[in-house]
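INFO  loader      accepted 1 record
INFO  loader      residues=287
INFO  predictor   begin
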Amino acid sequence: MKKNAFLAPKFAVGLLFVILFVSVGHTAQAQGIKSKVLPSPIVFQASGPTAESIEGTVDEFRAALGDPNNANNPGPLPTGRREINWDGGGGVDATTPPVTPFDVFLNTRGGQFTTPGVGLSQAPPSGGPQNGLVGLFNNPTYATAFRAFSPLRLFTPVGSNITDALFFVPGFNGVFPATVRGFGAVFTDVDEPNGIGPREKRGNPHGASTLVEYFDQDGRLIFSSFVPASPGNGNFSFFGIVFETAEIARVRITTGNAAPGPNDDEENDIVMMDDFIYGEPQPLSLN
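INFO  predictor   done
INFO  writer      dumping tokens
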């Protein structure tokens, strides 16, 4: 009896949320969404040769998004943030086959990731053994070219250098699109300095290599920036922004100036990603 009494209110709250979400969603769609001028976000960026070089900035970014880390708790929650470190709860170094969309954290943390390439994979810096090859990319130099910010795995697109992030209310398996206040990511081995970006200098390997673009729920670009470089094998970079309200519906990350596979050298700046940190996803139609 106690168990049933506990479940009933939870079910009622969940059902009420679904009814409210659908009702308000239709209203917003009928009325249209007016464009608005957004205040500038707070920008957090750092780079350096060690994890400690960026750790303070990463912690400041967490604080700006707010506590707690909501982990796998169902939403929508009024405060806090979500984090993904790709490490399978710690101590996992297995390479996952590349897939797109990457839905591993869709239900638990409200993040879905896609790429125009073959797929996205969690892997140790070396790429890990895969199908009898020397790592996911058959390139043994990657074991020293990259390092993990939070051991043991990194996150990377395969067959492309583009990753798109979309947000949903956690706990509903991607049913309800969401927006977030902020999004930041850790990068390893951003060698090329800031300047003209990869789209403007496509084919020129000496422009800035890593770009983060933020879009609102109407697909409009609301902020973009290059990620600060830290030349040298396995060095770290961080970039993130925080708005006052949940304005970010999609994030596009261009890592490096080439898809992973070739050596990381003067011609190719290959870049991998580690921790993703973002604001608690808020239902799109209730902002």
